[in-house]
Amino acid sequence: MTTDTTTAATTPATTASRTKALRGLTALGGVATIASTFLSWTYTDEFPGDLTVYGYPGGLQVLTLVAGALVLLYALAALDIRGLRWLAPTGTTKALRLLALGAFATTWFTVVAIAVELGGIVNLEPGGFVAAVTSAIPLIAFLLPDDTHKATRPRELPSWAEILIIVAAFGTGLYVVTYGIDTEYAELFTGYMITAGFAVTALFKAGLMARLSGLTTKYRSIAVAAAFVAAAAFPFTQTTDQFTLIAVNILIFATVALGLNIVVGLAGLLDLGYVAFLGVGAYTAALVSGTTASAFDVHFPFWAAVLTGAAVSLIFGVVIGAPTLRLRGDYLAIVTLGFGEIFRITVGNLDGVSGPQVTNGPNGVPNIPDLVFFGYDFGESHTILGIELGGYANYYLLMLLAMILVVLVFSRAGSSRIGRAWVAIREDETAATAMGINGFRVKLIAFALGATLAGLAGTVQAHVQSTVVPEMYVFAGPVPPNSAFLLAAVILGGMGTISGPLIGATLLYMIPAKLQFLQDYQLLGFGLALILLMRFRPEGLIANRRAQLEFHETGQLDTPEGTLPESGVGTVKAGA
Amino acid sequence: MNDMTTTTETTTPVLDASGVTMRFGGLTAVRDVDLKVNAGEIVGLIGPNGAGKTTFFNCLTGLYVPTEGKVRYKGTVLPPKPHLVTQAGIARTFQNIRLFANMTVLENVLVGRHTRTKEGLWSALLRGPGFKKAEAASHARAMELLEFIGLQDKADHLARNLPYGDQRKLEIARALASDPGLLLLDEPTAGMNPQETRVTEELIFAIRDMGIAVLVIEHDMRFIFNLCDRVACLVQGEKLVEGTPAVVQGDERVVAAYLGTPFEGDTPEKAGTPDAEPAAADNAGSTTSTEGEGQ
Ligand SMILES: Nc1ncnc2c1ncn2[C@@H]1O[C@H](COP(=O)(O)OP(=O)(O)O)[C@@H](O)[C@H]1O
Ligand SMILES: [Mg+2]
Q: Which GO terms describe its biological process (chain B) (predicted)?
């Protein structure tokens, strides 16, 4: 991070007053942008979200309104309004620029979308033009001098207030994510992604996120609890099952991605067929679920099915890992890639024609019954706390438990003797073995653990989907989870972190689910996005403390023989 | 599987390498080298670049499986597996620093504790009292070692961000964390200034006083002759001379080897009869520049 501090003391008074004027104008731009959302932007309600009403922002206008409000807030903070300084511990300008861009991009996206979808700019009411112009005003922020500085020391707050901040932050997070999942049409989701993307980056640049993560480190257990309470609250915000199903699938995807992160992120083993372990778990659970389509006439209780699924995955993990992990280099990647395909093709052929009848071949195992715990049927709606919860809400909460388990496993294993051995192996295998680490053994543990966790997630997935087919477990395909997307979620989110794969998986699931019109261009888009990400943020969205230093600290060492700068030695100790 | 060959003499040597030979295809990097290190000794290994010193270390520590020869540690033949060698009690540092660059200083030392702790995956997941106690003990021991080398204030820094000298010291601390009986140091002062070299010298004496035998490769002759009880000189894979610093320093063939005069292979067991080449000049104190190769 560059920290070129511009001290007001050294600049002439005229510059100071100019800066002030510019900030004032930016604030006015924010106000004007907000005001413009109360106008009507188009004549017809053919454009989704009904932007025709005066005095009542709808659909995409709400996003512009939020973006404008954020611009206003940060402009006021930049003007040193009392009570707002906490918004920007490390300076306002960069955040203000990003927010201005966000407001501008959201508004222009809306206006252009109206013009394109309805066939020409004649469909824009004057309000639309007003919005287009007013949303450009905050771009004045780009004339502001950079005021980035070291984070000011946070004022000591009583601990109840700090805890309240954490709770509020997670509440806001829940609201924002829920809003995204609940978006009804592709335009709104795109606008949401634009606004949210710029806003979140701005909050990072302003240092607000760093302060928040400081707080969450301080009250770790409370923060973790708050996060899970927020996550558990999601189904209670839903009126239909439609979006809960999306959320369940996101949870499955994210849980599996987190399991993969143990293998890839901690131990540094490239597993290109990870989804096969999910498939092993799912098929195992399906075959012992008592469905009439199963070749086995058994009906295991769920806990037994989970254990069986996890155990079978574990066995496959050991069988795949044991011969390959003795070798160095990329053999594992090739073998796991092969295993992924072998699994899919095998279950596709165990249909009684080309092989014994076990899996019904390409038709898969249908009619997997819903789970029933002590008479509590997961397939039915239940009323909890006076709120009607659909069937998927049950699976959502069950999957959340599975995810908590994987998070626990990740964090506990990661910060222990075995976790350090994984990272050491990843860093330098020769040195690690010379420190007494049995490389093969430690890698096999990581690989088998990853396989087991995926199998566990698979057992829940089988019941959620009620059908398992071979085509759910491909290497790459348009619908996550598949091996390529899982890896992408880990890399995009941030290797070796917990929140990274969760965020990566959420994005990678929501984008294709919401932007169905992309269909054919989706993979192309992901390819481009990954290339751009690797170019500009190789450590992923959420930087692991180590990766952050690895990629962005100046004067990094490529070889131990390299010259070592004395400056900035170990200055960054970000809590993560 | 371990054939104990306890000699009838007073003590078994800590390290007893006999007839170690390492061939890479047609190249014999190490040829029939015998070397003993006794308890409480600091032994130096010198020789021009490419003489096979690092390769010899790799043979000792199991990174290479020697083509011929045996390595005994306290009388037990070592299996050629690096982690088992470390487990047995030999720790090493690398000529080209091989720290875990993106781990913290403390974590690096904790990794060094690996062989002396037991906690597996289950105990990490269950976090019972035993796990917490073991972690606390590891931390305490690691901090102790960091204090010993003077890096206690940088425990939370990333290893990659340490200055060069500190990185070399950290490698030593990491090696010491495995509670070794023998420490192998591969050019521990390469790239250090004279002051840092002197500090390292003190450090090695202190390690010896902890009851750990030391085998050290160095090019800095002043350093070696100050430090070592015994010095062996390796040239083109063969042990040319072995003896007290004074003997080795005075050996003309050593001087010749360092000046690059071709050496016709005969393997005298001890330093002695200077028969062959008339050495040009004696500047045995010269330090050849180090080049990065090997492990
Ligand atoms: N893995 C290897 N494969 C082939 N040749 C090697 C290998 N390791 C070392 N050598 C060769 O063995 C010789 C001795 O190298 P080395 O032990 O690094 O010398 P020193 O440490 O004494 O400078 C060199 O010629 C080197 O090129
Ligand atoms: Mg060497």
A: D-alanine transmembrane transport; L-alanine transport; L-isoleucine import across plasma membrane; L-valine import across plasma membrane
Chain A residue numbers touching B115 (CB-CB < 8 A): 435-436
* A573/B156 CB distance under 8 A: yes
For B182, what's the count of Cα atoms within 13 Å in the CB-facing half-sphere?
26
Residues A305, A316: Cα–Cα separation, whole Å? 16
Question: Quick one: which ligand is closest to B52's CA?
Answer: 1
- Rounded to whole angstroms, the Cα distance separating A251 from A444 reads 26
Name the segment(s) of chain A with CATH classification 1.10.3470.
240-543
Neighbours of B162 (CB within 10 A): 24
Q: How far apart are CA A274 and CA A487, in angstroms?
A: 9
Cα(B106)–Cα(B158) distance, integer angstroms: 9
pLDDT digits (tens, 9 = 90+) for A10-65: 556 778 888 888 888 888 888 888 888 888 887 777 777 777 777 777 788 888 88
**Partner-chain contact A423 B98, CB within 8 Å:** no
User: Could A420 and B107 be called an inter-chain contact, meaning their C-beta atoms sit closer than 8 Å?
Assistant: yes
Which of A430, A435, A539 has the most B C-beta neighbours within 10 Å, making it the best mutation to test the interface with B?
A: A435
Q: Which pLDDT belongs to residue A568?
A: 30
Confidence of residue A280 (pLDDT cuts 50, 70, 90): very high
Where do we find the tokens 């038709």? A363
A115-147 residue pLDDT tens: 888 777 777 778 888 888 888 888 888 887 877
At B40, the amino acid letter reads: G
What top-level class would CATH report for the domain B12-89+180-295? alpha beta
Task: List the alpha helices (DSSP H) in A466-544.
Answer: 483-493, 499-514, 522-536
Residue entry with tokens 């979808």: A117
Instruction: Report chain A residues whose CB lies below 8 A from the CB of B114.
Output: 417, 420-421, 435-437
Sheet holding B230-235, edge to edge: B90-92, B182-186, B213-217, B42-46, B230-235, B238-243
With residue B184 as reference, give the H or E element that holds it.
strand B182-186
Nearest to A79 by CA among A94, A69, A66, A92: A92
Residue B127 is encoded by which pair of tokens?
A: 């976090």
Stretch(es) of chain B classified as CATH 3.40.50.300: 12-89+180-295
User: What is the interface pTM, i.e. ipTM, of the complex?
Assistant: 0.84
* DSSP result, B14-81: SEEEEEEEEEETTEEEEEEEEEEE-TT-EEEEE--TTSSHHHHHHHHHTSS--SEEEEEETTEEPPS-
Report B:170-209 residues touching A (Cβ under 8 A). Answer: 174-175, 178, 191
Does A575 lie at the interface with B, CB-CB under 8 angstroms? Answer: no
In this structure, what DSSP letter does residue B119 have? -
Q: Are A285 and A429 in contact (CB under 8 A)?
A: no
When pLDDT is cut at 50, 70 and 90, the band that residue B2 belongs to is very low
d(CA B168, CA B162): 10
pTM for the whole thing?
0.83
Contacts with A193 (C-beta within 8 Å, 6 or more apart), sequence order: A180, A511
Supply the DSSP symbol for A152: P
User: CATH fold of A240-543, please?
Assistant: ABC transporter involved in vitamin B12 uptake, BtuC (1.10.3470)
Contact B54, B294 (CB under 8 A): yes
- Distances in Å between the alpha carbon of A68 and those of A124, A198, A470, B52? 20, 12, 48, 70
Distance CA B255, CA B249 (A): 8
Strand-strand pairing, B182-186 and B90-92: parallel
